[in-house]
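[Automated response] Your request has been received and processed.

Submitted sequence:
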Amino acid sequence: MFREMKSYNPGWLLLFGILLALSFPYSQAFGGNGNKVKTAVFLSPKFVLGPGSVENRFYYNIDFPKGHIAIKSFDAEVVDEAGNPVPLHETYLHHWVVVRYYSHKGVELSEFNDSIKLHTSDYKSARNSGICPNLGQYFGLGSETRKTATHVPDPYGIEVGNPAEIPSGFEERWLLNVHAIDTRGVEDKMGCTECRCNLYNVTEDQHGKPLRPDYKGGILCCEHGAQCRVKQGFEGVRRALYLRYTLKWVDMDSSVLPVKVYIFDITDGWKRSSNSTGINAEHDCKVEYEVEPCRATGLADDLCIDTKRISLDMPFGGYVIYAVAHQHAGGSGFALYREDGQLLCSSMPIYGEGEEAGNEAGYIVGMSTCYPQPGTIKISEGDTLILESNYSSIRHHTGVMGLFYMLVADRLPNSMHTSNTVVQAQDSVVLLTILWLAVALMGVVTVIAVVIQHQLRHERDDGYEAIVM
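Generated structure:
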């Protein structure tokens, strides 16, 4: 049969050769350098929650990939001891954040109460590049974590573990803060997740200082060890939980372009003045705020939107690679604009519709993300950007947030990776698909022709006249 295929081979081989030739540039441009993506899954230290109880601990020196690497994604969720995802209507994940720091070699920290030691000479901050002094985390989300994309597109990555940045005698480590609230059997699930002070019977902060009279709810009322009011007679077991986090990364080399992490806060009290420099010390980021119900203003429900807007002068420049907002239940979207009103990114909440983990009705289970084509959003130092956070104000909300994460690259890839090449690569994918289909079709035709030719030869051998085709 191989001999019979020879008469059909030239065209098939030509097409196959063209296909291979077109395939090579695509492979080289997208991962041809052999820098493979690595994946690891870790568990936080165990924390135990009972109905209405609160976990808000800080865990130091958590498991984290070692070496000079570029993080490609960081995802997390709360699971039980069997590894099953725990739904938000049972354990609400208020937030989780991961912070980088340097510590003297051989110095150890225990969880929670040793956080004050981070200010001693044994520890140095290795915060992100953002402008809020109190938002130094590299990674972090909340209830939306399961359905929010965190992937950093090629050829970019979040660079960590660079030996040139680690002070002599120190080593790079990572801190994890988990803030979770057990809402099984509580009187008011939404009130507990919004940390309403009356539900926690809290009138002073963890240092014993009385709360402001107008402070109705927020993180000061749901610190570690706080207890939200449970329905009378409800009994529930205490259970062990973990934050399961998954990292993907590549080794840092010349093929990876580093991005910087910036976090903005809608409550930032910065004001422009003649001597403003944009440095962190000028920014007062309160992190959370309160949304008053619109019924107090007499508006109809369809107009009940609380809009908070601020303008900030950028103390940096670069190209936006990724952006996403963090909001709480009631959030209706976050937007980033230029001063002239041009929309740069809109991050919208995804609300659940069921009971299962990742689709819990009434909770934000994801936030849409922005992945602009390389080079399409450039920020220059001194540019004024407008941040806008929207919440439904049909009802009163306490302790809500409006954070905005942004990854920025100092430069674009070389010509092979410019936006034009991305479009060309997409066109190549379509062309390659068509050619592969053509190869498959020609293969089928070849096989049929060979079978027919083989059958006709047998027929001639048996005395039948061949059919001329």
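Summary generated for your ticket: DSSP finds five helices and 22 strands in the chain. Residues 419-461 form the longest helix (43 residues).
If you did not submit this request, please reply to this message.
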